[in-house]
Amino acid sequence: MSSFSRQQLEAYLKTIDVDCESVIDIGGSQLPINKRVRSWNVKEYVILDLETPHEIKSLPDVTANIAWRMPTDIAQRLFTKFDVAFVIEVMEYVHNPVKAINNVANFLKKDGILYISTHEIYPVHKPTEHDCLRYTTNGIKKILSDRFEIVECIEKKIHSDYFKAGFKFEQMKSAGDMISQGCIIKAIKK
């Protein structure tokens, strides 16, 4: 059974109709996005992922790490090429989120659409050696704000009161009800 966070994400993805010329799916080797959305009418679909993703259901078309400077050949081939970019459950593995978001923005045409999801509370998971960051909703919004206008932000809600009870037991102070598992954002490139 999938986590409640994953169930919320998959339910959201099932509301998206993708109808455009080109889509880049960053980190999509494990769960390609074209099989997760409501409808798909796309002429060119490119999966960009690491050379050896930890789980492969679909081989990447392009291998690169979005947290690094893009190799010249990839930059020339992919920059300002795509109408839509998906970065789904990838950012926890990205050690340089600002560079990564700049690369994603560079892949998109002007007014291109970005769908991105992040974790705020989630245990370290495979591949553990690459799992390095979590994001508050405000944090990912700030990282995106230089290059994107956020048009939709959905917080992935906590399913039970166990986290709240744990925080209370540890005498941690939260800002009211501001506990989420992360968020799903739709944004437009500026």
Topology:
Blueprint: H1 4-13, E1 17-26, E2 39-49, E3 62-63, H2 72-78, E4 82-88, H3 97-107, E5 108-119, H4 137-145, E6 148-157, H5 162-169, E7 180-189
Parallel strand pairs: 1-2, 1-4, 2-3, 4-5
Antiparallel strand pairs: 5-7, 6-7
Q: Treating each run of at least 4 consecutive H or I residues as one helix, how many helices?
A: 5
Give the amount of beta strand, in percent. Answer: 25-35%
CATH topology: Rossmann fold
CATH architecture heading: 3-Layer(aba) Sandwich
Given as residue ranges, the uncertain stretches (5+ residues, pLDDT < 50) are none
CATH superfamily, by name, is Vaccinia Virus protein VP39
Helical content (DSSP H or I, runs of 4+) = 10-25%
**How many domains, as an integer?**
1
What is the β-strand count?
Answer: 7
Q: For this structure, what is the CATH class? A: Alpha Beta
How is the biggest beta sheet arranged? 7 strands, mixed
Question: Main attributes?
Answer:
24% helix, 7 strands, Rossmann fold, seven-stranded mixed beta sheet, 5 helices
